Structure formats: structure tokens, C-alpha cells
Amino acid sequence: MSKKLIAGTLMGMGLFLSSLSAVAADNLFKSYAYGAPLSSFKEAKGYYDCSDEVGGVARCLDDVDFIGHKFTAALIFSGSKLVMFSLFSPFDNDLHATALGSIAKTFKLTSLSDGKSLLDVVQASATAKNQEELTSKVDIYETRALNGDTLTYTFYEGVEQNKGYRNMSSQLSALPDNVRAAELILTGEGADSALIIRFSFPKLQANKAAEAAMKPVEAF
Question: If we measure between CA atoms, which residue out of 6, 76, 10, 12 comes closest to residue 41?
Fold first, then answer.
């Protein structure tokens, strides 16, 4: 299936602007709050157990509306608390373009990855001589990745423009702990091609992991 090159085109048009609006109550997606208990997502409300398909503890919900399209939502839990919200759909070129454009209205592109390598867009932006050079570098990477099996676009919300970040690591460290990430993932080939939009709070999860690692080990 042909996948159109989009990221570099959008960058060249100057559309990768970010909003500084805060996320109410640390919501992952719309009213789905980070840390919501697993017990809230019951079969009577349309949720079903999809742990085997998704991996880990998960609940799914069909026909979720977003950007004028129907998705299957997958809610991922850790310690019986909601930590990630994903939207799944068969791949479509128009959906790909619409999803990228919609995410870019409130998030800023940070990286592209093909699963084997990563393009640090923040670093590329800091070292590029001009916008044309940056757009070309993104275009080249995106074109190569689209010919493979997987391409992941990673965005962060609330990123201020022209802050002089050296790379994506320095950008992330400067952002608040409740910064929301959005990942647009294209995966598979032909009839098996899928588009996934994944929302998370990476710094909150990293902090939890660090706290757990510091707890004393129980004697046994």
C-alpha cells in the first residue's frame, strides 16, 4: 500500500506549531484520565478484555470517534491504573494526513523512528542552516521509513517555540512531568497495514519506575 510522504511537507508549510494549553486533570485522551482505575471500564459500558491481543492488561472499546473517523480504542493499565490510551484503524492515506495535521495543532514533532534508527528532529532543527535543509532531512528519512514496515512520529505537547533545545533529550528534561506525548504509528504492509495513535505521559511513567526501583527489596 502506498503511504504518502507528509511530515516534511507539513514542516515546510510551517504547520508544526504547538499549543501551550494545559491538559485538564492529566487526561490522556478527552475525558480518559491518567491513573483511572481498571474497575471503571466495565463490560456494561461496552469495554471488553483485549489483553491477549494488545499485550499486558488492556480493555478495548469499538467505534470511538476522533477526527471524523471510527477507531478501536485500547486502554493499557499498569497496577490496575490507566497509563496509556491508543486508537487503532486500518491504514488509509487520507487518515494519515488528517491525523498528522490534527496532532500538529497542539503537539510539536520531536522525532521519527523506523524501529531500527531514529531521527532527532529537535537536534536536526538546531543544526540545520535553514528551513529547507531541515525539511529535506525529514523528507529523506520519512521516505525511506515509509518503504519499510514501521514508522513512528513522536510529538510532545506544550513545547514552546525557539527555546534553543540541543536535542530531544534536553527538550524532554525541560518539559513538566505531566507533559503528554502523542505517537502516530504506521505499521504493516498491504491489507495488514494499520495506523495507531498512542497517548501517554512518559515522564510520569519514568518517575514511577524510578520510585519503584528505589524501594527496598523485601527479604525472602
Answer: 76
Residue 217 covered by a domain? no
Q: Residue 208 has which C-alpha cell? A: 514511577
Domain count, the chain: 1
- In whole angstroms, give the CA distance from residue 77 to residue 81: 5
Contact 117, 144 (CB under 8 A): no
Give 85-108 pLDDT, tens digit per residue: 999 999 999 999 999 999 999 999
Asked if the structure places residue 96 within a domain, the reply is: yes
User: Taking the model in full, what pTM does it have?
Assistant: 0.86
**Grid cell 521516505 — which residue?**
143
- Locate all alpha helices (DSSP H) within 30-177, ordered by sequence: 51-54, 93-103, 121-127, 131-146, 168-174
In a domain, 215, yes or no: no
The reply to whether 219 falls in a domain is no
Q: Residue 208: in which H helix or E strand, if any?
A: helix 202-214
Compute how many other C-beta atoms are within 10 angstroms of the C-beta atom of residue 150: 14
Residues sharing a CB contact under 8 Å with residue 139, sequence separation 6 or more, in sequence order: 5, 7, 8, 9
Residue 189 has pLDDT above 90, yes or no: no
Range of the domain at 107: 7-210
pLDDT tier at 142 (50, 70, 90 boundaries)? very high
Which is it for strands 69-78 and 181-187: parallel, antiparallel or unpaired?
unpaired
